[in-house]
Amino acid sequence: MIRWIIPGRLGTGPAQTADAPGAVRIDVRRLVDGPGNAPAVVAELIERGSRALEAGSPVLVVCDFGVSRSNAVAAGILARFRAVSVSDAVREVVARTGESEIKLPMIETVRAAVGEARGPETTGAIAVTGATGTVGRAVAERLGPQAVALGGRADFDLQQAPALLAARLGGAGVGTILHLAHPRVFSNNSALGAALHQQKNVMDVAATLGATFVLVSCSAVFGRSASGARMPTDAPRRPGDVVGLIKSLQETLAEAAEQSGGPRSRIIRVAPVYGRESPRPRFLRSFLEAIMAGEPVATHRFDDGPAAMELLHLSDAAAGIVAAVTRGAAPVCHLGGVETVETRRIAEILARLVGKPLIHEEIRLEGACGHARLDWTATQAELGWSPVMTLEAGLAEVVEGIARHPA
């Protein structure tokens, strides 16, 4: 099977099955599909292909599967033949072939082979993935013109074509990538593979650009702990649910990549975030709807006490993330709330804010409540950050936001 980049003139495919009679066949299987290829060797292949095109001959570039090496070299041939940048050539190759798995080290070797500079030096620009999400949007707004905001799939699918992402961020001089993106549904097993796939692509781009990779994680990596326990940044991860497991694996991936020569990585863990624009925690809306309807609000009591959790207001989370990204140096930082608050107290505050009586029910559950609480004293010492929004003021915003956008 041949995938034509220039119809009938420049194509790629698997060496064993792709055949175009009369075409100049360029076999790149001797190249490794990664770093280490000599630019001079790749330059010779590119020159041979571009000369054949100029002479009017069709060119077929082949490798084992017709995926990465062949398409990278074909991009070099196209760049030389049409006198365009390697990034523009890669965009056309991906668009024509649909191949999104071209390895970034191969593209960088092709770039060196044609004598093209990488692009603008990295600057203070900070790419923010997941910038259409609640936290991502707040962070991008706080960063202002320093942010290069990446939205959802409509803007850029992080599971596709890291070569195109590298071209986009490289052209913007990005020196830091702040990774907040995650699959739309993030609490089931199917999200695990997608989250790691997205992150690996983004980390590969960071390595190519020489940028720092910053992962936004969460307190769920610690699972459940003794009630009220504060977890320091070096506490062992013991996730207890799918979200915690995914974030823990993401942290492991970032750490392992850096240890094996990948991008410099940092981790920011945040407590559960709430605020006017935040859809989470979802029980806030459920509590408020029950209160307004005059129905009971049910909270839980475990063997070690009533359900309680740490909450961090959106504005405090965004301020802390920006401070950590722009001024921090610690490999891990924590952004937590002022206190651990019982869910019954949250219901009481909501009822008071809307002027309605609270009808409360308590459901007994076995086991420990034990939501882990983040110890953010080291982050406070380094950055001077601490949460400033009071729980009552923050919940007043939630009430206002829900009234403005009823379900």
Q: Kindly state the mean pLDDT as a whole number?
A: 94
Major sheet strand order: 6-5-7-8-10-16
Helix content: 40-55%
| Overall form | elongated
Radius of gyration: 26 Å
The number of strands is 19
Unreliable runs: none
Beta-strand fraction estimate: 15-25%
Profile the largest sheet: 6 strands, parallel
Q: Give the helix tally.
A: 13
**Class per helix and strand makeup:** alpha/beta
Q: How far from one another are the termini?
A: 50 Å
Structure description:
This protein has 407 residues and is an alpha/beta fold. It contains 13 helices and 19 strands. It has helices at residues 39-54, 69-82, 86-97, 104-113, 134-143, 162-171, 190-209, 242-259, 283-292, 314-327, 343-354, 377-383, 391-404, and strands spanning 3-6, 10-14, 24-27, 59-63, 125-129, 147-149, 174-179, 212-218, 230-231, 265-270, 273-274, 297-302, 305-306, 308-310, 312-313, 332-335, 340-342, 360-364, 373-374. The strands form 6 sheets. The protein has a 6-stranded parallel beta sheet with strand order 6-5-7-8-10-16, with helices on both faces.
